[in-house]
Amino acid sequence: MHEIIVNLHMHTRYSDGTGTHKDIANAAIKTGLDVVIVTDHNVLVNGVEGYYRFAQSRVLLLVGQEVHDQDRDPQKNHLLVFNANRDVAGLADDPQALINGVEEAGGLSFIAHPKDPEATAFNETDISWEAWDVQGYNGIELWNGLSELKTVVPTKLHGAFYAYFPQFVGTSPIQETVQRWDDLMSKGNRVVAIGGSDAHALHMHMGPIHRVIFPYQFHFKTVNTHIIIPEPLTGDVQIDKKMIYEAVENGNCFVAYDLPASTKGFRFKAKGLEHSAIMGDEIPAKGGVTLHAHVPSKADISLFKDGKRIVHWRNHQSLTHNTSEPGVYRIEAHRSYLGKKRGWIYSNPIYVR
User: Fold this and answer.
1) I need a surface site. Which of 73, 117, 128, 337 has the fewest CB within 10 A?
2) Sequence-ordered list of residues with C-beta below 8 angstroms from that of 104, at least 6 positions apart, any chain
3) Which CATH number fits the domain that encloses residue 8?
4) How far apart are CA 7 and CA 100, in angstroms?
5) For the chain, how many structural domains are there in total?
6) Residue 206 binned pLDDT confidence (cut-offs 50, 70, 90)
């Protein structure tokens, strides 16, 4: 098994971002990413996918979409679309039809920023997902970097502070989103969690102050999705693209906040009487199962079963738990950074059946 670091959910000049695909690729190479997935609003940009190289480094740039009904006010129900073989933006006015269309086009669909509150100081409206009666989507964006920013800027003064000190923004996914994810899984649904930066590199002006909120290169150091693939990337775009999206579909990944410390090397696995499993897999409960998590440096580690914390270790690097009880088991790890306890790792679950 091999781990790659992916930053997904970002925008270029084709929608409401400020950079080009080449700008994004260069920023990704500088921050050591393996893959970026660009998701412009309601447009599928052709001809830009591929490996981008600088000196001895490379990054794979893939293209998806963020689709929503532009005629709706406010424009809620945003859907991230990956690997579809055609533009599906024409289905945006009906979320269920859109999800069905993505599946028919061979793609994956993820509910974007499920909870995205208003920020009245900056005239930003609430654009949360509301159509929770839909079925057939692959997962949700558990942690969205830009949505979280909206929760900490009640005034323009707060906005100015975070414009200059963005490292203080990230704390954790919005708790309502985490609760929604646990509730969906407790009802028997398989719901893959991903983390998105929602990078725009927006140019903001407040009087004489001008800042980029936030540069792509900063976003790429923060909320990422780490994906476990069966072998290293080959350099062949089509082979690697297939391998990446299959792993995402299966939930063989975790959501990471890489700014406090690198999360690379995190593992969550299970061993049973005759089977073994990693994040996203199912394993029989019969005969007992040993769950094991390992983080790359010391942190507070918690094991959750069906949304309830059942084991908690402080300042450890590993956690082991034996069980014979069916359930949905996932890991959270937190660590201190800039004087505050912050979310660090959120695993996808192992399903003990």
Assistant:
1) 73
2) none
3) 3.20.20.140
4) 25
5) 2
6) low
